[in-house]
Specification:
Elements (H helix, E strand, L loop, with lengths): L1 H7 L5 H9 L3 H24 L2 H11 L5 H7 L5 E10 L2 H6 L5 E22 L4 E12 L11 E5 L1 H9 L5 H14 L4 E5 H6 L4 H9 L11 H6 L3 E7 L11 E4 L35 E5 L4 E13 L2 E7 L29 E2 L9 E4 L8 H4 L2 E2 L5 H4 L2 E5 L4 E14 L16 E11 L4 H51 L7
Parallel strand pairs: 2-13
Antiparallel strand pairs: 1-2, 1-16, 2-3, 3-6, 4-5, 6-7, 8-9, 9-10, 10-14, 11-12, 12-15, 14-15, 15-16
Amino acid sequence: MKTFSKLLCWSEPASEKKKKAAQPPANKGVVTYIACGVLSLIVGCLGLIWSPSEVLMTERLRMRRGFPPFEWWVTPPEEVFVSFYVFNVSNYEQFLNGSHSKLRLQEVGPYVFKEVEQHTNVEHNGNDTLTYKRQYKVEFVPELNTLNLNDTVVIPNLALLGMASYLADSSFIIKLGFNLLMRRMGSQPFKRVSVYDYMWNLTDPLLLVGHKLAPFLVPVDNLGILDLIYSNLVDNITVFIGENSARRFFTMDRFNGRKRLGFWRNETCDSIDLATEGMLYHQNIARTDDLHFFRKTLCRVTPVKYEKDVVKDGLQAYRYIVPHDTFHRPKNGEKDCYTLPGRKPHPNGMSEISPCLYGFPLAISFPHFFAADERLLDLVDGMTPDHEKHSGFVIVEPVSGLPLSSRAGVQGNLVMRDVSTFGPLASFSDMYIPLFWIEMAQVGVPWYVLTALYLTAVVLPATQGVVCVALVALGVGLLAVGMCRLRRFVHKYVSLDQLPQCTS
């Protein structure tokens, strides 16, 4: 019996015992191979089912706090510069005495500012929309300027001429009262002012009295151009976000709580459909897509249209242009959206914006009447339209819908109606007087945004398939090695260890 027991027992050699004691347990390596293989296999399979680039783009649509897309939008990193150009009237004396029939204008500028956009009071509404308060401000950039804000220019007296044009259709009694007030205040058709005052602090005794006596007709006492524009650029906006709104991403749902702009009687003209603020467009843009942006300075939703493919900052991108007929009347006979009721339509290239500026008689065009009716060029001297300088464009990365660069200019023109009943102003009747023009330019995006965009739009789509297949193959390989080692471990250590050890 004792001999039979010895046959069943197994005695491990002393050298093997020492080697085994010196080595780490074999099962630790097995666990590592199997765990890494399972993890690699899971990640690879998930990547083949849900591609990483699509996951990132879908997450971007949600605009969740703390994530880069939301944080970059709340505090926009893009650098946007505003260049302000003034038209100085060089022959005002000759025009007033009748020796010259046209105003001679001289462009002075640019005066360069940095525009800062702020998004505050942000609320996720829970119905795939986001509401926020949008506000702009500008900061003078001394290092980008060669001209002085204290330079003086001669400009049309906006208070006098604007009020006269506004009252052109008023009753005899109102016109008589305005004539008396004009003479009493001693207001002149032209003013010599500093460029700074023209931008921020432009007033007149006539304007101050009018604002005091009839604030419902004269709602402001300061006609400084930039003050007028930027004090008016504060709005509450609701936009679409979320996976269900991919094609409408960041287009407006409500503007100041309304489904329309609130400027025009015609519902089509007043619509905010497809309008964005121009900072973000929908993802996966096609060349056939038109993009739309709204800026209160333009008083309308404006389309931009695909022109060509370009390469910008190493990224494939689409160049969109502002159509040259943006400020034209419809060609198909439809009602002109941007002519006020009861008024004659403006020439092509000129669009009314007075409903957005307290009714002040102002119309906009491309700078120097670029692409406008040639009759406008005959009304004044000094206009030199140039396609390269005065047209507008935006370059968009199509996968993300992020603008990489843009430039657009707009000119403000004083609309003078028939003011022949206001004696000293009769020579200004039926004129369009260029006052200024503003160019807005986004010069680029920061390197860290470009890096993230390049990874998301270029690197991931090109490599994610190969990487995911490689991860699956790696996972299978690791599992195979792990299972092989496990089998050896079981055979060598488990099966033999179950035999009774010989003690003698």
